[in-house]
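Problem 12. The chain below contains 240 residues. Write out its predicted structure in token notation.
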Amino acid sequence: MGDLLDLVFEAHGGLDEWRKVACVDLRLTMRGEAAIKRGGGLKDVQVRIDTRRRRTLITPYPAPGRRGLFADGRVTIETDAGVPVSGLAEPRQSFAGYEVFTPWSPEQFLYFVGYALNNYLTMPFLLAENGVTCEELAPHEEHGETWRVLKATFPAGLHVHCPVQTFYFNSQGYLVRNDYAPEVSGGGAASHYTYDHRFFDDFLFPTHRRVVRRDETGRSLLSAPSIFVLDIGQVVVTRG
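Solution.
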């Protein structure tokens, strides 16, 4: 497994170099079936990921003149000047009993996208965090390629979709798929595919992402409508 993580970290820009990073800024559009149900998604917003404090700032959110902040497991909607308007101190607990069609508040959607984007933009280096354990599984064949597979178990207290997830890497070490079952969405199992990998400031980021459902056999339903589609651009990495 160690050789796989070495390959993956090096392919994405290097773990030692990543540890010098303070934040990642990007433009994002988020659409798809679930995004529409959860308030319309995000259209050409500015996102800042604080890689050390696990904070996500989305501007504007949920409307012009407001911005959304995920930090320390909490969410706050603020004015552009930073004055709090609303929030949730324990947003994950607020989803108890929710099902796939249960409406979400703007604060709940902010929590979901806040921690999710923080995870996505810090992968695969999040796998090197304290308390994360990894195990390599049997290779996987898909799209005429052989992908190496890693099962990761995340510690309690780390805001992720679910404690156990599976990651797939191609021969170059690029992350190409991530399987999980979000605990807060009530939507069942999902496969998250990444495409159009590009280097920004010497780090590799997928610029197009597509999330689809998985059936009871674990097969990705690629011909079905997308749960989420994410388009990412203008990525700037700041060291410091």
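Discussion. The first helix runs from residue 2 to 11. Students who got a different answer should revisit the alignment rule from Section 12.3.
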